[in-house]
Write a structure and sequence with these properties.
This protein is globular. About 40% of the residues are buried. The strands form twelve sheets. Strands 29, 32, 33, 34, 35, 36 and 37 form a seven-stranded mixed beta sheet that branches. A five-stranded mixed beta sheet has the order 11-14-15-13-16, with helices on both faces. A four-stranded parallel beta sheet has the order 2-1-27-28, with helices on one face. Helix 25 runs antiparallel to helix 26. By secondary structure, it is α+β, with helices and mostly antiparallel strands. It has 29 helices and 41 strands. The chain binds one RNA strand of 87 nucleotides through helix 8, helix 11, strand 20, strand 21 and helix 18.
RNA sequence: GCGAGCGUGGCGAAACUGGUAGACGCAGCGGACUUAAAAUCCGUUCGCCGCAAGGCGGUGCGGGUUCAAGUCCCGCCGCUCGCACCA
């Protein structure tokens, strides 16, 4: 007798062929794991195979994985699985970029230790990530906050130091005078510390630097060889390095304030006597000079500030802008006359004023410029503001020298020089050369190569980072920690709270006290830690030998695997992370760690778009709330009325500009009647909408469709819940299907539904076929009936799909590959009939489909593979190759144009001779009608593409 | 401010080196099956004119090159990313 339970199970099995991801997905993950198919082979074991190192930028363990993260990994995984199926020895590892600010923020806000917080997050995220079924070699997992990792980083630091790639230098930092900490640029909001609200000061600290500029030329030149990088990234890197030819010009003083000290300062410079050095890339515009401008922290500015309170106040004002270049350059151009006058290098009688100006960067060139207003917008704005006279010296093409004038808009392009004495009539390019010749002859300047690239400041005054292995000794100075004393491990017993501001390492009672390795006297440890970009500048090398205790990695292993064959990550890393990694790889090579002549870590790069999701915001007017409508008053006195409880679409998030108090200025689309009022705004989760409507009768709920998923915006779709509801394959398929990979994709319920429907459809087709064809043998080749009609058409389509999907994956056109799979599924579903030919065609097409989808939806594909009667994993099965005879097209449809407009179509054999196609086209009835009464001038035949008849 | 990128139906998009604009998916509409619903299947969907055949317009906006432009060039508008201490 059957128990009720068995009965129930039996009935379910009989009536439901629905694909059950909750059983299927964990089952296959366990099988892959047990078989160890995701482990990379050692170079010896992989003899005869080519290697493929596939890497996605590793994540920061911020808490939980959401579906937005999954796109990056899904893309890398498609490539990794595709390479494996094509016979490569694949290395596809995963790790954690685990040092960083958020851990310290969590510590301050919630009293959790950064280490515990970080490792808890890693544990949670690892489990989530595993749900995705990524073909990752988990035996190589690493976290940059592991001592086992950063002790090697300290060794690398020491090696770089020996190679003179490390030095110390004074650098400006944002200083919060209340919390007594250095602020990151993102922690400076409107010139104030984000937590304390205190106006930011700038301080100069002695900082550790990496000499990136030692490789400037090579980093620039080698960009030309990065053929498999996106052009935009290569261009951004080139511009960032910014090599330019220019000049240094020494401007002799003609007048200085009496208070200026006559003696030399620490650098041996006499401000009262020595000329001012200025850097320029445009010496051709020297005759258009109007003023000199010095950085606020130029030594001369600072010296004058000692006796000029207004200058000191100006410097303090500039300090409030912080150190962010974007903030500095966006601010209104202001300056102060320093009371210094200089003589023009080409004309002794020409005297120019010297200003300190907020837009001059001390980090670039000599920290001083000459302003040539007609040719530079910043200089022009500045000259106009301070009513400084100037004249144009570059005549734009097509302009008349007699009438051309510059008032509000500078002309920055090339032209012909005029108003410029001996430079008159020269082109911009020639004038630059001529001006430099003259400067050199006069001893007033010299030609220089200038770089925008600066050395890399790696010091951070923070706890949660890799300690810098250095010791400060009163007698011996700054001394490296001996290699045998590594690691310099972070102490665990630190506290974070408001009452004890500053760097916890610095105020730790014992940690920093040590003895000098050279003279053995009392000394202190360096309390700065390394920028987290250092951690991510060599992790790709560590993955090649992640458990090596003696050294960062084995040279032979790293040299086997590197460079990374495919690197996948966000564009936001286009400049800094990639540049630093390129520097680091060269430095490691030159320190003997690596046998990699190019010094290039990433052979091929793909920058993927983000997953964005709608953001719901509740707007509650601070003022009156009506009953059926909300009246929103505008700053200009007008008002608009909005119905209550309606979901509005703001077209972009910039219409909701945040201001720090937690309130937001809400502006509406211009269609709706323009801009806003101050309201309280809060983010809503979808589940909170009904409640919010009920609780806020005067409120308006807005949907802003495009925001990167983030916890604070409440628009994250958590991965666990999603995988439970729909399965990992649906998530993977969805994030790859709707948008081109380099563009953002919007997460939508309907998109999910589409992906879900596809999974079910594939399974139903396989299941139906497998049941109908049970016991059939498909090993015998093409049976009768499969070589003609619909079965043949299906086979042809399937083989074309193989070619197309293969090429689409290779070129990162995942969304197109997905579309091809849809087409194939549609075609399979369309084929009716249950004769041998139809069964055969279906078996072949479904087999191909299963393989084509396997990099995208590995669990489903594995289940289908088994159901279709194959042994082993589809994951390790050889990638299909199209039969050329089946994939070829033997007829083509050619559009016929008359004067560029399509008038007819003809069918023609592929590769038909031009003359024949031409005749066919000209004889076509519809075409003839259009040719009546006109003369055919020309017939253009593009073989297998188009015919265009030119006639009049 | 500077540097870079992107912009195609109601929506996500496709169109590989200039060669039929809108493949494929979503949503919609019409139909089949069903007591009904869901699911599934079939058809249809850029706009305008036309009973139809067909015609005209159309890839952010304005120009240009070409037999032919979504694609190339010039100028604008909008959005996104980066700007060196977020990662």
């Amino acid at each position: 007798m059957q128990s009720p339970k068995t009965l129930l199970e039996g009935r379910e099995a009989a009536m439901s062929s629905r694909y059950n991801h909750r059983e299927v997905e964990p089952k296959w993950r366990a099988k892959w794991d047990a078989a160890g198919i995701d482990r990379a082979l050692t170079p010896d074991a992989a003899k005869g195979k080519k290697k493929a190192y596939i890497l996605e930028m590793f994540p920061y363990p911020s808490g939980r994985i959401h579906v937005g993260h999954s796109r990056n990994y899904a893309m890398g995984d498609v490539i990794a699985r595709f390479r494996r199926a094509n016979g490569y020895n694949v290395l596809h590892p995963m790790g954690w970029d685990a040092f960083g600010l958020p851990a310290e923020n969590a510590a301050m806000e919630r009293g959790i230790h950064p280490k515990g917080w970080t490792y808890d997050n890693i544990a949670a995220m690892r489990e989530q990530l595993k749900l995705l079924g990524l073909a990752i070699d988990w035996s190589r997992e690493l976290a940059t906050c592991d001592v086992a990792y950063y002790k090697h980083q300290q060794a690398l630091f020491l090696a770089f130091w020996r190679k003179d790639l490390v030095y110390r230098k004074k650098q400006k930092v944002n200083w919060d005078p209340v919390d007594n900490i250095v602020l990151a640029n993102e922690q400076v909001v409107d010139g104030k510390g984000w937590r304390s609200g205190a106006p930011v000061e700038t301080r100069e600290l002695e900082q550790w630097m990496f000499r990136v500029t030692a490789y400037a030329d090579d980093l620039l030149q080698a960009i030309g060889g990065l053929e498999r990088w996106p052009d935009k990234v290569r261009l951004m890197q080139s511009n960032w390095i910014g090599k330019s030819q220019g000049a240094k010009i020494w401007w002799p003083l003609s007048k200085t304030p009496d208070e200026l000290p006559k003696t030399a300062d620490a650098s041996g410079r006499s401000h009262a006597r020595d000329p001012i050095e200025v850097s320029t890339t445009r010496p051709d515009t020297l005759f258009g000079a109007s003023f000199l401008a010095l950085a606020p922290d130029h030594p001369l500015t600072k010296t004058i500030a000692q006796f000029r309170p207004d200058v000191a106040a100006f410097i303090a004002d500039c300090a409030r802008l912080g150190t962010s270049e974007a903030d500095i350059e966006k601010a209104e151009k202001t300056g102060v006359d320093l009371g210094v006058r200089v003589k023009h290098p080409f004309d002794e009688s020409w005297e120019l004023p010297v200003y300190a100006a907020n837009f001059v960067l001390s980090s670039y060139g000599s920290g001083a410029i000459f302003g040539s207003p007609a040719g530079d917008q910043r200089d022009l704005d500045f000259a106009n503001k301070y009513k400084l006279p100037f004249k144009p010296v570059v005549l734009p093409p097509g302009e008349d020298a007699a009438t051309y004038a510059v008032t509000d808009e500078a002309f920055t392009d090339d032209g012909v020089i005029y108003n410029s004495g001996f430079l008159d009539g020269l082109s911009t390019r020639d004038a630059i050369v001529r001006a430099i010749d003259e400067l050199v002859k006069l001893g007033a300047g010299e030609a220089t190569t200038q770089w925008r690239l600066r050395d890399w400041g790696v010091s951070r005054q923070r706890y949660w980072g890799c300690p810098i292995p250095a010791i400060h000794c009163a007698k011996c100075g700054v001394v490296p920690v001996p290699e045998k004393d590594l690691p310099v491990a972070l102490p665990d017993d630190v506290t974070f709270d408001r009452d004890h501001p500053g760097n916890p390492l610095d105020r730790h009672p014992t940690w920093k006290h040590t003895t000098c390795p050279q003279c053995n006297s009392e000394a202190t440890r360096e309390t700065d830690t390394l920028d987290t970009f250092v951690d991510s500048s060599w992790y790709f090398a560590r993955f090649t030998d992640p458990n090596n205790e003696a050294q960062p990695f084995d040279k032979a292993l790293a040299s086997y695997w590197l460079p990374v064959d495919q690197y996948v990550g966000g564009v936001e890393h286009a400049v800094l992370h990639l540049l630093y990694a390129r520097f680091f790889t060269r430095a490691m090579r030159d320190c003997g760690y690596l046998d990699l002549p190019s010094g290039e870590p990433f052979k091929s790069l793909f920058t993927q778009g983000m997953v964005v999701h709608e953001v719901l915001r509740l707007a509650v007017p601070v003022g009156n709330a009506g009953s059926g409508e909300t009246v929103v008053s505008l700053p200009d006195g007008a008002s608009i009325r909005l119905p209550v409880g309606v979901l509005y679409e703001a077209h972009n998030t910039h219409q909701l500009a945040s201001i720090p108090s937690g309130r937001t200025i809400l502006r509406f689309d211009s269609d709706a009647g323009a801009a806003g009022t101050i309201v309280d705004l809060s983010y809503l989760e979808p589940a909170e909408v009904d409640r919010a409507k009920a609780d806020n009768p005067g409120g308006v709920i807005f949907s802003c469709p495009i925001e990167k998923m983030s916890k604070s915006k409440k628009n994250v779709v958590d991965l666990d819940a999603f995988v439970t509801d729909f399965g990992a394959d649906v998530a993977r398929w969805f994030v790859l299907s709707d948008s081109p990979p380099e563009r953002d994709v919007e997460w939508t319920a309907s998109g999910v539904k589409g992906a879900w429907g596809f999974v079910q459809r594939v399974w139903t087709l396989v299941d139906t076929h497998a049941n109908a064809a049970a016991g059939m043998d498909f090993g015998g080749g093409l049976p009768e009936g499969a070589d003609q009609g619909e079965p043949l058409a299906l086979l042809q389509l399937a083989h074309r799909a193989v070619d197309s999907v293969t090429s689409d994956i290779e070129h990162f056109r995942f969304n197109v590959a997905v579309a091809r799979c849809y087409e194939l599924v549609n075609a399979i579903a369309k084929l009716k009939g249950d004769d041998a030919g139809a069964h055969y065609a279906r078996q072949q097409a479904l087999t191909i489909l299963t393989q084509l989808i396997s990099p995208f939806m590995p669990h489903l594909a594995e289940e289908c593979w088994e159901h279709l009667g194959y042994a082993g994993f589809v994951a390790t099965a050889r990638w299909p190759v199209a039969d050329p005879a089946l994939a070829a097209r033997n007829t083509v449809t050619l559009p016929i144009q008359v004067n560029g407009k399509k008038r007819a179509e003809i069918g023609a054999p592929a590769g038909a001779p031009e003359a024949a196609v031409r005749e066919l086209a000209l004889q076509h009835a519809a075409v003839k009608a259009f040719l009546e009464g006109v003369t055919v001038r020309k017939v253009i035949v593009v073989p297998d593409r188009i015919v265009n008849i030119v006639a009049n």
